[in-house]
Design the sequence.
């Protein structure tokens, strides 16, 4: 598993969000709400969709259980919040360091990629998780059931602090 280390520039995003857990996953419901209204966002920068998760106290996989609550967003990037649909939320994604991975396959197979990032790549890297949003960038035409999908997985990171005695 290889990562590209990227400093993300701040982004303005518009869309919807729902609180959920992995045992009570509402992702399908969130995207069913968002996709029909996506075309009403007039100042979007491109056709990519951000599937963004905001966790609290996520430092390693042991902090996440099937019942852990998090907020998931379905968003698009916009030039400005001016003229954003009133029923949609406005989200400022702050700049920061990210490890970017490529996942190929269905959403059912995504857990394998996610698990490898947190059990193999991250512990063996010079980085640790940062407390910022995690997200995936889904290209136009993305189909969650297609084995031919390619999506970018963005994990917030910061350099590990090494204490020498």
Sequence:
């Amino acid at each position: 598993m290889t990562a590209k280390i990227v400093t993300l520039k701040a982004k303005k995003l518009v869309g919807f969000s729902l609180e959920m857990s992995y045992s009570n996953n509402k992702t399908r419901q969130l995207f069913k709400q968002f996709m029909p209204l996506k075309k009403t966002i007039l100042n979007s920068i491109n056709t990519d969709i951000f599937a963004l998760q905001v966790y609290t106290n996520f430092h390693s996989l042991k902090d996440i259980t099937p019942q852990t609550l998090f907020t998931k967003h379905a968003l698009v990037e916009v030039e400005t919040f001016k003229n954003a649909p009133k029923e949609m939320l406005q989200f400022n994604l702050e700049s920061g360091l990210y490890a970017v991975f490529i996942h190929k396959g269905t959403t059912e197979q995504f857990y394998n990629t996610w698990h490898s990032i947190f059990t193999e790549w991250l512990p063996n890297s010079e980085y640790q998780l940062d407390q910022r949003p995690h997200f995936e960038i889904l290209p136009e035409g993305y189909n969650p059931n297609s084995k031919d999908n390619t999506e970018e997985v963005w994990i917030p990171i910061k350099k590990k602090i090494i204490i020498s005695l």
Remarks:
- The helical segments are 27-34, 110-121.
- The mean pLDDT is 92.
- The longest strand covers residues 11-20.
- The radius of gyration is 16 Å.
